[in-house]
């Protein structure tokens, strides 16, 4: 199948490569030249994606996604389907799905960069039954699980709900590590306990180095991205007259992180924000003497 792919960032680049590895011909576009993996055909303008049977966007926000669909994909062949895989919120997806001349579905993903590289991320799909069955083999080339959650826009709702939990979990892990440090525990030893406790979600395991050694750990999900997603989740909550105090608190800490120059740092750097906010004694990671301690 001829597939167009827009957005070759940390997640999009390996996803496009997986499509090529599955035997698809991939036309890939990114505003930053040189982002495309060698297995795909890089194109200079997004307009080239209109010639494909299926196009995919993995773009950072709703504005970029809206522009791609309404401008670059304004003149596609009948039957062309565009899959919104970035996190943009359900309202924009539904708006785009209502446009004439193009089918639009959403399939945002959950997982880390390493999981995207291994094709073990999960996708939540908003589409009708026929669209889901047609597109599932394409999605399966990039993801381990494909959940059909309802019509267009439902995938984005599911993603925002998942990321509201993720932001709260990120905050909770940081608070747990901070409390352990303050009580004189070795953070690494405590983290091993946490990962094997009742709170040991997969996120806790694969984010260990991001919490314990952020200076040497590649950024997987930047603060700015999770802050954007959580903001969308809270916008959705307000439209439904919901109050989510945990999400509001997590958003406040993410705002502090952005204001403190950590927008491009990994989301685990909320721990740095908490250290800064709890006075000089906790403004920096524990001393080497504390790091060598052990839990019995």
Question: How does this model look, in words?
Answer:
It is a single chain. With 296 residues, the chain is α/β, with parallel strands linked by helices. It has 13 helices and 9 strands. The protein has helices at residues 12-21, 62-72, 90-97, 113-117, 129-140, 154-182, 187-195, 202-206, 208-212, 223-239, 245-259, 270-277, 288-291; strands at 2-6, 25-29, 41-42, 54-57, 81-84, 103-106, 109-110, 122-126, 145-150. The strands form 2 sheets. A 6-stranded parallel beta sheet has the order 3-2-1-4-5-6, sandwiched between helices. A 3-stranded mixed beta sheet has the order 7-8-9. Helix 3 (90-97) links the parallel strand 5 and strand 6. Helix 6 packs across helix 10 (223-239) and helix 10 runs antiparallel to helix 11. The N and C termini lie far apart (57 Å). Residues 287-296 have low confidence and may be disordered.
């Amino acid at each position: 199948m001829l597939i167009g792919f827009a957005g070759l960032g940390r997640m999009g680049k390996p996803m496009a490569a997986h499509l090529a590895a599955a035997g698809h011909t991939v036309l890939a576009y990114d505003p930053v030249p040189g982002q495309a993996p060698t297995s795909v055909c890089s194109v200079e303008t997004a307009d080239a994606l209109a010639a494909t049977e299926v196009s995919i966007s993995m773009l950072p926000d709703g504005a970029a996604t809206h522009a791609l669909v309404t401008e670059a994909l304004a003149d596609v062949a009948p039957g062309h389907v565009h899959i919104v895989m970035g996190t943009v919120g359900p309202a924009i997806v539904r708006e785009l799905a209502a446009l004439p001349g193009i089918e639009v579905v959403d399939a945002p993903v959950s997982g880390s960069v390493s999981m995207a590289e291994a094709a073990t991320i999960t996708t939540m799909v908003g589409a009708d039954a026929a669209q889901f069955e047609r597109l599932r083999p394409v999605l399966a080339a990039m993801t381990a699980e494909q959940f059909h959650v309802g019509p267009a826009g439902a995938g984005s709702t599911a993603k925002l709900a998942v990321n509201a939990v993720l932001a709260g979990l990120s905050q909770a892990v940081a608070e747990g590590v901070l409390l352990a440090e303050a009580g004189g525990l070795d953070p690494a030893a405590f983290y091993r306990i946490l990962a094997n406790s009742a709170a040991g979600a997969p996120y806790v395991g694969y984010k260990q180095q991001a919490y314990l050694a952020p200076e040497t750990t590649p950024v997987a999900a930047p603060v700015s991205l999770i802050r954007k997603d959580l903001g969308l989740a809270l916008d959705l909550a307000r439209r439904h007259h919901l109050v989510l105090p945990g999400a509001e608190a997590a958003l406040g800490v993410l705002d502090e992180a952005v204001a403190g120059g950590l927008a491009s740092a990994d989301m685990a750097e909320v721990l740095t924000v908490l250290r800064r906010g709890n006075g000089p004694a906790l403004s920096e990671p524990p001393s080497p003497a504390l790091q060598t301690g052990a839990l019995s």
